[in-house]
Amino acid sequence: MKHFPIFLAVEGRPIVVSGGGEAALAKLRLLMKTEARLTVIAAEPIAQIAALAAEGKLTLIRRTQQPGDATGAALFYAANDDPVEDGRGTALAQTDGALTNWVDNLEKSQFITPAIVDRDPVTVAIGTEGAAPVLARAIKADLEERLPASLGILARVGKAFRAAADALPMGQRRRAFWSDYYFRAGPQTLESKGEDGLDDALGTLLAQHLRQSDQPGRVTFVGAGPGDPELLTLKARRALHEADVVIHDRLVTPQILELARREATLIAAGKKGFGPSMAQAQIDALIVEHALAGAHV
């Protein structure tokens, strides 16, 4: 990856946009979904941008960009549709210490803005490093259809309940509770009782899970085939995603191991002629050890 995907905290922080035309307006429509403090620098802004300023949604500075305008800014966008002015503004903002994006100029940008699927607080970001914007838009359109608008409601209510859910021990039992909420109890309650019923549903669900004893460990054997992750069955993918411990031989490719949870323990237990090896008895003992500890192996 040439660009590392991150989510930047911008609440209450300034973001500066240089430009007052359609390119700047398009960027502002996205930025206004955040809780950042927006400033637009433009000598002759179009009417829509001026109207946003009049409504108090941003600060409008009616002049060209000057040194110091981007000091303290979390992000800076050059969106003048003028390569000379965008180049000048980008240089000034970098001198001011801001991370800069020159709209539609990947090589001159220090960061890029991905295609976004917004189900606040659930956000999906899609990037192709500028290689295939059409593909990014197609993926976005597909996800927009797949992810229901109610997803954000479930996540927002669930977030407020996280402290209460900490009564469950960290690990498998807590994951089971949240899976039960997001994929069964939550959607069912939202459909039958609406958002107002979610708090009671969470309380009832937590009480049920607190009464349950620790689940025994279990072992799932997954055949990795020739090493192509696309040839794995859906059940195999789900097992890898849910596993606490993944014990694998040397024939399992890195692409398949990428399907495991980041928190999972990965243990290489392969055999190699005239090289480091683990006896089958050791592998069996390792599987039993982790399963007896309650892990999904």
Give the gist of this structure.
The protein is an alpha/beta fold. It is built from 11 helices and 9 strands. Strands 3-2-1-4-5 form a 5-stranded parallel β-sheet, with helices on both faces.
Report on this structure:
This protein is an alpha/beta fold and 297 residues long. The protein has 3 domains: 14-113, NAD(P)-binding Rossmann-like Domain (Rossmann fold, 3-Layer(aba) Sandwich); 162-211, no CATH class; 229-292, Cobalt-precorrin-4 Transmethylase, domain 1 (3-Layer(aba) Sandwich). 41% of the residues lie in helices and 13% in strands. It has helices spanning 22-31, 47-54, 83-96, 133-146, 151-160, 162-165, 172-193, 198-211, 234-242, 254-257, 280-292, and strands spanning 14-18, 37-41, 59-61, 75-78, 99-102, 115-119, 122-126, 245-248, 265-268. Strand 4 (75-78), helix 3 (83-96) and strand 5 form a beta-alpha-beta unit. Helix 7 (172-193) runs antiparallel to helix 8 (198-211).
Low-confidence spans: none
Let me know the average pLDDT. 91
Spatial strand arrangement across the major sheet: 3-2-1-4-5
* Class from helix and strand fractions: alpha/beta
Question: What percentage of amino acids are in beta strands?
Answer: 5-15%
CATH class of the largest domain: Alpha Beta
**What's the quaternary structure here?**
single chain
- Count of helix runs: 11
Computed over alpha carbons, the radius of gyration is 25 Å
Please give the largest β-sheet.
Answer: 5 strands, parallel
Quote the CATH topology of the largest domain. Answer: Rossmann fold
Our measurement of the CA-to-CA distance between the termini, rounded to an integer number of angstroms, reads 31 Å
Give me the CATH superfamily of the largest domain: NAD(P)-binding Rossmann-like Domain
Number of strands: 9
Helix content: 40-55%
What is the total number of structural domains? 3
Taken in chain order, the helices and strands follow as: EHEHEEHEEEHHHHHHEHEH
CATH architecture of the largest domain: 3-Layer(aba) Sandwich
